[in-house]
TrEMBL record:
<dbReference type="GO" id="GO:0005737">
    <property type="term" value="C:cytoplasm"/>
</dbReference>
<keyword id="KW-0963">Cytoplasm</keyword>
<keyword id="KW-0030">Aminoacyl-tRNA synthetase</keyword>
<feature type="domain" description="Aminoacyl-transfer RNA synthetases class-II family profile">
    <location>
        <begin position="133"/>
        <end position="432"/>
    </location>
</feature>
<comment type="subunit">
    <text>Homodimer.</text>
</comment>
<comment type="similarity">
    <text>Belongs to the class-II aminoacyl-tRNA synthetase family.</text>
</comment>
<keyword id="KW-0067">ATP-binding</keyword>
<keyword id="KW-0436">Ligase</keyword>
<dbReference type="GO" id="GO:0003676">
    <property type="term" value="F:nucleic acid binding"/>
</dbReference>
<protein>
    <recommendedName>
        <fullName>Asparagine--tRNA ligase</fullName>
        <ecNumber>6.1.1.22</ecNumber>
    </recommendedName>
</protein>
<dbReference type="GO" id="GO:0005524">
    <property type="term" value="F:ATP binding"/>
</dbReference>
<dbReference type="GO" id="GO:0006421">
    <property type="term" value="P:asparaginyl-tRNA aminoacylation"/>
</dbReference>
<keyword id="KW-0547">Nucleotide-binding</keyword>
<dbReference type="InterPro" id="IPR004365">
    <property type="entry name" value="NA-bd_OB_tRNA"/>
</dbReference>
<dbReference type="InterPro" id="IPR012340">
    <property type="entry name" value="NA-bd_OB-fold"/>
</dbReference>
<dbReference type="GO" id="GO:0140096">
    <property type="term" value="F:catalytic activity, acting on a protein"/>
</dbReference>
<dbReference type="InterPro" id="IPR002312">
    <property type="entry name" value="Asp/Asn-tRNA-synth_IIb"/>
</dbReference>
Amino acid sequence: METITMSQAAQFVDQKVTINAWVTNKRSSGKIAFLQLRDGSAYFQGVVLKSDVSEEVFDTAKSLHQESSVRLVGTVQADNRSTLGFELLVEDIELLGASEDYPITPKEHGTDFLMDHRHLWLRSSKQHAIMQVRNEIIRATYEFMNNNGFIKVDPPILTGSSPEGTTELFHTKYFDEDAFLSQSGQLYLEAAAMAFGKVFSFGPTFRAEKSKTRRHLIEFWMMEPEMAFVEHAESLEVQEKYVAYVVRNVIDNCEIALKTLGRDVELLEKYTKTPYPRIEYTDAITLLNENGFDDIQWGDDFGSPHETFIASQYEQPIFILHYPKDIKPFYMKENPNDPRTVLCADMIAPEGYGEIIGGSERIADYEKIMTNIEKYGLDPEAYAWYSDLSKYGPVPHSGFGIGLERAVAWLTGIEHIRETAPFPRLLNRLYP
């Protein structure tokens, strides 16, 4: 008799198996007990018929409390009423671990309570579904990058400088030197791209930004590719193909999770169609001004309401191109068609989820890099290694970064980014 996971049930219909699980809920009468079960791979129902089991087994079934752990022996049966399509006709139950007074009950709980019990809240069906989508985005990302000739490079988390200046950084001591938690691995990836051609990283980054919005975390995961011999227009094509690929895989491989979350799959299907629309920053400002947004003018960065309105004009993610150079980092290449702007783009997600990708073509000219380092008030010695990249065989190169948690929020359709990380770090939350 084989021990299986619930997700393997389709391969064992009408066969006797063993399943290890937790009880999420139960209901029983004098003759039958229904056990709602989970094992980490899926959710499942166990049916215990009093007439088919010993009195001891039936009494055990009736006495189980929420989140008790059990080992079940039974026969897998097809069941069209089940989300998974199967259930288990139970013959034997072994109680592995009792659970008394589980704090998260089927009633409504406040957000603070649930966040204080995040270590338990992860067990719920909705949180389980969100983490499944997160995992699929990660899996599909590695697959896309591997299939397109990228090599993974891991930049350091402790750095001596910042790619975007020294604001919003977590400071620490590195023996007798100052160090910071990384807010991006980009500069290191540019160096790696000069060695390997196409590289990407996927790891944690940190922003000491005192923001409480639903779009911000203090610690989050970034996927950042860098590509040598790639100019801005080609980079945009890579970005949209990557996003469409990820959405396609989430639709194809997370059917039950998306159903649990009530996500509109037909809407997600629209996001798999490329190319995505593009709009110039200047035209986006005009669009906003013509529609009652008098709080923004050329040279300003977009806020959440602005991005939401611009995205609402389209049915797909949209690229906003060529932002003013004064609001962008020092490493972005000047736009030859408008020297006030740089060759960059932000990809704005539909449905009010805001920016999910930021990217640009990087400067490959030593004199311009040095001029910008001085202009932005950065320490030339701290960036000496980076400026070397534009001295020794510089080439056109581009890259971008996508925040994993924002992508998860968008594709799952959840309102707040705090539910997209297993243990989110927020402005006022370091527990659990």
